Amino acid sequence: MSQETSHSNNDIDHASVADHTNEAEVIHAEDIIHEDAHADEHAGESHGEHHEHEHTLYAETVFNIGDFNVTNSLLTSWVAVFLIIVLSLVIRAKNSRIPAVFQSFLEVVIDGALDMMDLVTNDREKSRKVFPIVFAIFLFVLINNWLGLVPGLGSITYDGTALFRGATADLNTTLALGLFSIISANIFGIMVVGGWNYFNKFINVKALIEIPGKIKNDPTIVLVNPITFFVGLIEIVSEIAKVASLSFRLFGNIFAGEVLIASISAMVAFGVPLPFMFLEVIVGIIQALIFSILTLVYYTIASTEHAH
Q1: What pLDDT sits at residue 294?
Q2: SS3 string of the chain?
Q3: Does position 304 have pLDDT exceeding 70, yes or no?
Q4: pLDDT at 256
């Protein structure tokens, strides 16, 4: 009887030890889960802090107007447009028959711009026609390039998101500018040379129609004109490539410059970034000039009749 009681007590003791062991394991597991949760939370917070200062390839949404996302690069574009409008109003208000210093300076700039455009178009009348668009593109790109370099502009945040970002450091902006330049150049070409002639630059139906009438006098036309037709089709691909060339060139140079300055500022905040910022100011002017000159070149090519 005593032996059975002893065995029972031993079983109870083993069960109690097992229960305590299970409880200890459960408590230990819960502690591990809580520690992992705290670690994930701290990691998420640190990641969020890092994200605020990260230079991303995409613009961040600041707020929404219905289904329309308003990004920080779009806000910077609006600021640039606002500055151009203010500048235009100031120039109009200061305009007079007897020019002051400011008006004289602007007249020198405009005359110099027209002279530079004449080197491409070889026609002052054509330069005057495209001047408003080309010069407006130059100002828009230049102001956006410089706005991205303003110290402290990127640190202005709303709900954890930077309010402003260099618009030309966003591929969406440069792609829109490239599309506008090429589409407007093609519209200008249609207005100057006519719809039918411009259509034959790309799909040269004229070259195929001319073959039966000229084959007797010039048998080589059977080989030349079909080649001319296919060259026109290649021009369509060329127009698409122009959009990519304009947009990626501008985006790559401006975005790389902003990342360079941000990286140097993170290492040495005072003094050292100044030479690089001055260099980026010059790069901003050069890139705006390149973009506007290429747009002028495309306008000139589009307004030139196709040679047979």
Answers
A1: 94
A2: CHHHHHHHHHHHHHHHHHHHHHHHHHHHHHHHHHHHHHHHHHHHHHHHHHHHCCCCCCCCEEEEECCEEEEHHHHHHHHHHHHHHHHHHHHHHHCCCCCCHHHHHHHHHHHHHHHHHHHHHCCHHHHHHHHHHHHHHHHHHHHHHHHCCCCCHHHCEECCEECCCCHHHCHHHHHHHHHHHHHHHHHHHHHHHCHHHHHHHHCCHHHHHHHHHHCCCCCCHHHHHHHHHHHHHHHHHHHHHHHHHHHHHHHHHHHHHHHHHHHHHHHCCCCCHHHHHHHHHHHHHHHHHHHHHHHHHHHHHHCCCCCC
A3: yes
A4: 84
Of 46, 35, 285, the C-alpha closest to 146 is: 285
Q: Is the dihedral of CA 28, 32, 37, 41 positive or negative?
A: positive
User: Global pTM?
Assistant: 0.74
User: Which of 234, 62, 252 is CA-nearest to residue 158?
Assistant: 62
Nearest CA to 161 among 39, 260, 58?
58
Provide CB contacts within 8 A for 83, sequence distance 6+. Answer: 143
Phi, psi of 160, rounded to the nearest 5 degrees: 80, 5
CB 147 within 8 A of CB 164: yes
Query: Residue 28: its pLDDT value, please?
Result: 47
Q: What pLDDT, in 10s, does the model give residues 256-283? A: 888 887 788 777 767 777 787 888 889 9
Tokens standing for residue 280: 């980026």
* Average predicted confidence (pLDDT) for the chain: 77
What's the CA gap between 202 and 294, in Å, rounded?
20
Strands 161-162 and 157-158: antiparallel
Copy the structure tokens of residue 216.
């007797």
